[in-house]
Amino acid sequence: MSRRADPKANPALRSAKGIQMDPVAPDGKATVAMVAASFALALVFMFSPLARPAAPVGALFWTLTATLAVLASVGIRRTAAIRGTGGGFYASMTAALFGFWILYFWQLLVVAAEVPRVLLPSPALIVASLWDNLSTLGGDFVQTVIKAVLIGWALGCGLGFLVAIAIDRMPFLQRGLLPIASLTSAIPLVGVAPIAVMWFGFEWPSKAAVVVLMTFFPMLVSTLAGLQASQRLERELMHSYAASYLRTLWSLRLPSAVPFMFAALKVNASLALIGAIVAEFFGSPTTGLGFRISTEALKMNMTLVWAAVVVAAVTGTTAYALLSRLERRVAFWHPSVRGRK
Amino acid sequence: MVHEQTGSMNVAESDSNHSLLAVDVRKASLVYNPHEAPVHALSEVDLAIRPGEFVSLIGPSGCGKTTLLRVIADLEHITAGAVLVNGVTPREARLARAYGYVFQAPGLFPWRTVLGNVKLPLQIHGRSASECETIAREQLDRVGLTGFESKYPWQLSGGMQQRVSIARALSFEPRILMMDEPFGALDEITRDRLNEQLQQMWQRERRTVVFVTHSIAEAVYLSSRIVIMSPRPGRIVKVIESPLPDARTLDMRDSIEFVQLAHEVREALAHGHDE
Amino acid sequence: MAMTSKRHGHAAALGSQGAPIAVVLALIALVWYGLAIALNAQGAIERNLADVMWTWQDLVATTWAMERPVLPAPHQVALDLWASITGWPLSSPRNLLFHTAVTAESTLVGFILGTLLGLLLSIAIVHSRTLDRALLPWIVASQSVPVLAIAPIVLVILGSIGLTGVAPKAVIAMYLCFFPVTVAMVQGLRSPQVIETEMLHTYAASPWQALWMLRLPASLPFLFPALRVGVAAGLVGAMVAELPTGAQAGLGARLLTGSYYGQTIQIWSALVMSAVLGLVLTAAMAGLEHVVLRSRRQT
Fold it and tell me: What pTM does this model have?
């Protein structure tokens, strides 16, 4: 990589006014080479004696770290700036690259500076803890996600959908129920967790009950909104065909409502996960991700806490990704889905 | 020469002919907001349309042409007077699937393919799956869209979408076709082509067509009879029987008869506007 | 003429809106009283009416007046709230408003910090392609992650540094508000149409001018819904933060202690109070939106 292409060396590559700082269309291959080189340097550095816990953290260490950080950010910036046909790939690579460097510096600094494990464990320790506690965390996963979240989410969304259909022809009830339902989003519904425990016991049903409550209202509101979403023209078209109410519901209004329902399903997936975990904070049986996080945190066993958080995070993103996939299949026709890359 | 008719047919004539009429509108009025700020969308409109005619309703915004069409289609209801379609009320005609309606926008369902959209009314009317398939394919062929059956609406141009909408309206072979400025949103070249296709379809099949438009040229080119309306209150100002021959080509638009007719229509519009 | 018709319109709207809501609320109250009878009946029979000859009226009256009911009746909760608020000085832990203030303080501090941080970061993201591609995807992805689960970690870390009290709760509320605000603001700052940005370009406007005169005003309609979501999320965060360390004050703490000692009515009072706090906070945001965007309304 020539020094002239480096924006830090060549002020002409900085934009004249404003904040936009892009090197002008850098060469993709050169960037890849540069990033690879920085990877190599990073690896060498990490396994060198300088980065060992035993070694003192002095000026040399910090200089090398700072240089590596500069290289990393330049690499990220160049990858971000790549345009053209390969642009999409490089765009996602930028985010991945950023994530990688965060993990790397986390690992490097925590180990070298001997940060206490209770304060911030290194990524390697977290992964190790994940591996060691696989069965425990697996049990937690089943308790929280498979039982409380999945069942609660399905029930809550299902009930919301059914009630919406039931009151579809009752505008009076809708006018009364919709404002109240929208207001519930302002209320910390997880607070019903102690009451749910009182009614349904300590086990997963009480957590599922909290999830049902949290997911019911968004689904109700979104389904109702979706059912009204069909345009006047299409409804008049069905009217001109003398189509019955059920026919119109099935052929027009439900398909129109699908994008709205998917938005609610996705939001509800995160709400469900949060609800189940936080409900477990309030009091729980002896398994569950929330239980694991809160009790292990009290015991200062932070690696396991982080491992449980990772499990929860992966669950959340996977659920969202799966729902998005499904949405692309079912609601492929909606402009918002069509416009996605 | 042009044969003029103003206002209403006399009652005796209308009575003897009414069983033959495709659309019979008698002193129809539609008033919105009758108590606070009344809007006379239609005011004592009389119109008799015989089967097989191509009637255009033309006029400025607010003259009631679309309202009149919607009243005939049972999409709106009159506050006074009578409307009969094929001898029955608009509602009964709608339930009997007597007409097809083409809106200003294609109104295609984006989750259905082109073929699926054309099948829609057939499925609602309870036809068998194989029937739906054959008829839909045939209708698409008639509007020149063979090969696009499995495309989705957003993959087609505006003109093609509107053609699908017409194929859909004709799929169940209604005797009456109602069209509300169907080509208004299209560019002129596409519009010309579709006008030609519509004309040729009408030549072949002689369905009754009630056609709302803003465009004088379009009205003159397509219709056998032109109804000029004016607003505030919405009413018919003049009805003109077209002297042009039935078989028409786009070149006719430069002929003297065409220009004269267009001139007459334009005069009537201006006159209605001044009233 | 215009004024009276507008007022007439408002009154009509309230009538058409108020009546259904009132009916639904009345239905809810009815169902609630009914459920109270059903759920408390067994306990009432076993405990309160054990040695007495009782009629149906006695049973119903008892189910609505138990000390530790399975489901307290609405008036029981209301009375408890009233007694708590009026019966004790505001600084006393027996007064629910004291706990409300504690939770509200952490929520608001965290919310304001989170919003500011979100605003700054969103402006940076919109102007830097690097940040846009490297950082924004992570922020968007975090919306599907239960970020609240990190709360115990945050509490432990901040506790070991010596930060206790409002600070850790505010930090948790802060990062819960931060995500929706950032995502919404990025969307809002990018919402101006190409026509508008190109027009400013022909005026040789600097990016700062474009930001101030076009992007920020255009982003406000996106900001306020996110503020509502953020403040509600911040409230949940503040309440959850009160749990793990066995906090003594705050609505979350009240919920926890109520559940430990089986004080049902206390739990319900705290729950109702937190609902009221949530509604007040989001109403404040809605009010702010109304004031700021007042001139934009096109009836």
Answer: 0.84
